[in-house]
Amino acid sequence: LRAAAASGRRPCHLRSPTRLRAAAASDDYGAEAVVRAAAVAGLDRVQVFARAHCARLAGDTPQKPELAKGQECDVPFPGLRATPWHATEELGWVARLEEDWREARDELTAFLALLDEGGFVKPETALCPETGRFEKLVLCEDGSQSMKTATRVGRDHFERTLALLRASGAPLGPAPVSMNRQPPNSGLPPHSDNANFLLTGHLGLVVPDDGVCEFVMVDSEARRWREGGVLLADTSFVHATRNDCEADRVVLHFTVWHPDLAAAERDGIVRLHEALRAAGG
What we know:
Blueprint: H1 2-6, H2 18-24, H3 31-41, H4 44-57, H5 92-99, H6 102-113, E1 135-140, H7 152-157, H8 159-168, E2 177-182, E3 198-206, E4 213-217, E5 222-224, E6 230-233, E7 239-243, E8 249-257, H9 263-279
Antiparallel strand pairs: 1-2, 2-8, 3-6, 3-8, 4-5, 4-7
Helix pairs in contact: 2-3, 3-4, 3-9, 4-9, 5-8, 6-8
């Protein structure tokens, strides 16, 4: 971190184990330093993951990873259970979100009442070039640091929603939290989010019921959103969305860490991606 600070690089969001932090705080801080730091800390899977990213940065052609049917991921984190859908019935944080979901729905309703048009924006991403009429409203840039990275609209209009996520105890990942809106008679085409170490959570806030409105796993079952219900999916599997109804569908979108990751491995992944961003990788 000292070297990252000296170079003006933004420090990572999550706190790393002492040995990993000390080994990574060198003058040649970068992806290779994370490889060495992971070795010092005994984080074998982080070391393998970091080496694969280093190979891609160097222009090497990596060996094609072994993936589950329907999964697409350029550099998967090794050894994680690969299943498109994750059960939510025994997750305490899911129960807490589902109990108090109306807090988020009420803030959404109040925000929409202020708008004639606008607020939501069409996202641009190489992961899904054809987003059609899909729109999102980003509430914070990093779910694991929700209030510190809250956008203006998140601070001014969705304070209770962000507090609900934080208080639920969900193991929120370092990715944006947003309201995702799918207009009537539209959908997202099949695509992968290209990362298997995070799971995608959707809390249904506005779900029409006059037609088919579902989250589609291309090589698995589709599941319908329901108001007040959480869907938890591994979106490194190719997936799509479908809203054949006559009204908008809106979900609270967030990510959580894959449950097979140890806390030290989560920290190692964050440090690696900070180094990759600094290197332009």
